[in-house]
Description:
Oligomer: single chain
Radius of gyration: 27 Å
Low-confidence stretches: none
Mean pLDDT: 79
Amino acid sequence: MNKTGGAAGTGKRTIEDYRDLLDLPHPVSRKHPPMPRENRAGQFSPFASLKGYEELIEEGAREAEDLYGQEEREEIFD
């Protein structure tokens, strides 16, 4: 790695910049036991990032249904 922190003065890092880290063993904590797989999966479950978004979409769909009616909507989207 050069003085600019990247490859050949571009400022971008390449795999060569990390070559010394690639073969290191995976770190294992001495303080904390590994988390069970069942609990780990919960970290990646979906969450409601936009609270009320689904209700807002459903309300818009109901309003569109009232405004255009089922038959006209089928003509437009079919």
